[in-house]
TrEMBL record:
Residues 151-165, 190-208, 220-240 have a biased composition (Low complexity). Signal peptide: none annotated. One of its GO terms (biological process) is chemotaxis. This is histidine kinase. One of its GO terms (molecular function) is phosphorelay sensor kinase activity. It comes from Actinotalea soli.
Length: 825
């Protein structure tokens, strides 16, 4: 009896795997009805389930799959073509099979699942055979060879299976009784061509025959290729599982085994403990002067790292395991929402920890439903908008920055920011004043609030306001992030960033108020240290919120002491800022000091600490001390309404004023103490050239610059000033299109911001006015006039923009422009 129970378990596991593939194959077959590879794969799967269910005395399951097999026989023999009603009823059969398998798994019986309605609908479809296509049974011919790189479009490019001989007809009762129970660990991973049968009772070797042999009861017929000098990929006999004694290579099935997930989890826990012990020994070795201990520690560290990597690989699975159900889901949703949708899936071989794959199933489902129902328009609306009638839904997965990024993109109508703001106010989630002060990116974050929905009416697909909230909650629950980009009329992209594993991760250990904390390395951008002397001048305040100007950008600051409500920070000490990334939000976390970076093992928190909402877990450090792991996302959200929110709004307001009223200029001396300001957007490069490089052509000074003859403009001479001759000249290179000019100045003073509101109309020919920069009167250079004075035809074929407007990068000859291009000085 125990052996029979093991066979049933094997049957359930393999049948569930087959059904996932069956959904994809049927949807793909609907788009490519001529594909015999797909049809053969579907036929083999159904026949295998039918044969094994008969052996195990599951009558309902056998009856349902037998009816489906009858329909597949007509498709295989060419007596009917794959159409919408056929696909619908076959998918209904698959759902029925899945329901029965779930009942068997739960109760060891087939339960009260009623298969009669589905069997009747299959019979009706069989009787409604298309009379137009009365075609004879085609001769079995080999399927075309699968392309080397199939297009990742689920509905257009289905997975291709190699030509394989079908299993034998249903075995008789006597062979079934003699079937030997399989081992507990056996082959489970099938090749793309076909999976091994679930039980030995249906395993048989089929000799290829020239023509199919009809039987009273529909049964699979072996497909044999016509005689060719070279067979395609694999012969039918080999594909059917004909194992000869002299076979030198293992099959794909023999190369893999099924292992209990609980065993893998236990191994991962033990590896975690090994990592902790490794860290402790490494810490002791670092403090020891003994070279033998250091070498032994290094060897242990290497072995532990390799073991950790190996065990983690056993838990990794390609994301296509989750995507396998997407084609069926998209087909059903498109039909329910009256949409035409083309599905593309790229990066299905990207691997994730198995537990994380399970965690992202529901978020992906919500995003796909949202894209089809809210994003992609109906065919009529798309045509009116100048788009193709068929919308595009794209799934893409790839590695980036130590994480797996999953993108769900549609080319639909996009998200209307104003509509989001209006709905947020209508539902009482935000006030009109709050939404008016929000940036577009902040408005999109409102989509993740509980109860928020832009749907006009509640349907069975969406509109209840729980989808995006569930997405964020579940993704952040596994240490990931979710963000959205949208353009009205063009589409929306939802982006999930997921850690590779939750068990072991690198982290930065820090100290705050004498307590140890760990920050996940994946959230850390950089570290900034400010000495005591520059603390007060470096940290600014906008609307009472502290900010730090990091390379010209305002970085909102959050003091970890204030987050935890601990004592005030000491004055006159160095300030350490950890620059962190949370979703699209970047902020600086002020800590007392930084210790080091090491791999940590994530331990779950007790229920008391979970309620605080600021910790992602706990860990044991190498010196034996316990450290809490900070939840960067939670800290950012808690501070958003305080320091970060105020600082960001003040930063945007300040940046807007600066953008309107100021422009960066290059200040240069031109002789006799006079200075000119050149718009930085007009500066391509700064160069030093020898005076001997100046030549004459057509009565004008020129210089050979990057393979072309470049006119020389001496600003000092243009303004009638005496300029000392130096052995080396400072040149400002100005480029438009394919032409350049070299403007000679006496010296480069600085790059400053020019307040456009403080210009004075005091100038001369070649000047646009005057202003005060760095406490000196500075003249604003009119580059067009200065260049035309030496080369009247310089701008003949090139339209010149305003001197205070930015240059179009496409029109600049140099690959670098603006401030970052100021090199060579």
């Amino acid at each position: 009896m125990e052996d029979l129970d093991e066979i049933v378990r094997e049957f359930l596991v393999e049948s569930h795997e087959n059904l996932d593939q069956l959904d994809s194959d049927l949807v793909a077959l609907e788009g490519s009805p001529e594909s015999r590879e797909l049809l053969s794969s579907v036929f083999r799967t159904i026949h295998t389930i039918k044969g094994t269910s008969g052996f195990l005395a599951f009558g309902k399951l056998e009856k349902l799959t037998h009816a489906g097999e009858n329909l597949l026989v007509e498709l295989r023999d060419g007596r009917r073509s794959m159409d919408l009603p056929t696909t619908d009823v076959l998918l209904e059969m698959v759902d029925g099979v899945r329901s029965i398998l779930q009942a068997i798994e739960s109760t060891s019986t087939e339960g009260d699942v009623d298969v009669a309605p589905t069997v009747e609908r299959i019979r009706v479809v069989l009787e409604q055979r298309d009379q137009v296509e009365e075609t004879p049974v085609p001769d079995p011919t080999p399927a075309p060879e699968a392309p080397a790189d199939p297009t990742p479009v689920a509905e257009v490019a289905p997975p291709v299976a190699e030509p394989v001989a079908a299993p034998a007809p249903e075995p008789a009762a006597e062979p079934a009784a003699k079937a030997k129970a399989p081992r507990k660990i056996r082959a489970v991973k099938r090749p793309a061509a076909a999976k091994a049968p679930a039980a030995p009772s249906v395993e048989a070797t089929v000799e290829p025959t020239p023509e199919p042999t009809p039987t009273p009861e529909p049964a699979p017929v072996a497909e044999t290729p016509a005689a060719k000098p070279t067979p395609a990929k694999a012969t039918p006999a080999k594909a059917a599982g004909n194992e000869s004694a002299g076979e030198p290579s293992r099959s794909a099935a023999d190369a893999s085994i099924r292992v209990d997930v609980d065993l893998l989890d236990a191994l991962m826990r033990q590896v975690g403990e090994l990592v902790l012990a490794r860290n402790a020994i490494t810490r002791l070795a670092d403090d020891s002067a003994g070279s033998d201990l250091v070498r032994a520690s290094q060897r242990l560290s290497l072995i532990a790292s390799e073991l950790q990597e190996g065990v983690m690989k056993t838990r990794m699975q390609p994301i296509e395991h989750v995507w396998s159900k997407v084609p069926r889901m998209v087909r059903d949703l498109a039909a329910a929402c009256d949409r035409q949708v083309r599905l593309e899936m790229v990066g299905g071989d990207t691997e994730l920890d198995r537990s994380l794959l399970e965690a992202i199933k529901d978020p992906l489902t919500h995003l796909i439903r949202n894209a089809i129902d809210h994003g992609i328009e109906s065919a009529v609306d798309r045509t009116a908008a100048g788009k193709t009638a068929q919308g595009l839904l794209s799934l893409r997965a790839y590695h980036a920055g130590g994480q797996v990024v999953v993108e769900v993109t549609d080319d639909g109508k996009g998200i209307d920011h104003e509509r989001v703001a209006t709905k947020a106010v209508e539902k009482g989630l935000r006030t009109p004043q709050q939404v008016a002060a929000m940036a577009p990116a902040e408005l999109l974050q409102l989509l993740f609030l509980p109860g928020f929905s832009t749907a006009e009416a509640v349907t069975n697909v969406s509109g209840r306001g729980v989808g995006m909230d569930v997405v964020r909650t579940k993704i952040e629950g596994i240490g990931g992030t979710v963000d959205v980009d949208s353009s009205v009329g063009k589409g929306t992209t939802w982006r999930l960033r997921i850690p590779l594993t939750l068990a072991i991760m690198p982290a930065l250990t820090i100290v705050c108020d004498e307590q140890l904390y760990a920050i996940p390395q994946v959230s850390l951008v950089e570290l900034v240290a400010l000495d005591a002397q520059t603390n007060e001048s470096s940290i600014e305040y906008i609307r009472s919120a502290p900010v730090y100007r990091l390379r010209g950008d305002l970085l909102p600051l959050v003091d970890l002491r204030e987050v935890f409500g601990s004592g005030p920070r000491e004055e006159g000490v160095r300030t350490v800022i950890a620059v962190l990334q949370a979703d699209t939000q970047r902020f600086g976390l002020i800590v007392d000091r930084v210790l080091n970076t090491e791999e940590i093992v994530v331990k779950p928190l007790s229920a008391r600490l979970k309620s605080i909402g600021l910790y992602a877990g706990a860990t044991l450090l190498g010196d034996g001390r316990v450290s809490l792991i900070l939840d960067v996302q939670a800290i950012a959200r808690r501070s958003m309404a305080g320091e970060i929110g105020e600082a960001e709004r003040g930063s945007r307001a300040s940046a807007t004023v600066e953008a309107v009223e100021t422009v960066q200029v290059l200040v240069a001396g031109v002789g006799d103490g006079r200075r000119v300001a050149i718009p930085l957007s007009a500066v391509t490069r700064l160069e030093k050239i020898p005076a001997t490089a100046i030549e004459h052509a057509g009565g004008r000074e020129v210089v050979q610059y990057r393979g072309s003859i470049t006119p020389v403009v001496r600003l000092g001479s243009s303004y009638g000033m005496a300029v000392a001759e130096d052995d080396e000249l400072t040149v400002v290179v100005y480029t438009r299109g394919a032409r350049s000019v070299a403007i000679v100045v006496e010296e480069i003073v600085d790059i400053v911001d020019d307040d456009a509101a403080k210009h004075y109309d005091l100038g001369d020919h070649g000047l646009m006015g005057s202003t005060v920069l760095k406490d000196r009167v500075t003249e604003l250079l009119d580059i067009q006039s200065a260049v035309v004075a030496v080369d009247p035809y310089f701008f003949t074929d090139v339209e010149v923009p305003s001197q205070h407007g930015p240059l179009d990068p496409d029109d600049i000859n140099s690959p670098a422009a603006g401030r970052g291009a100021l090199v060579g000085v």
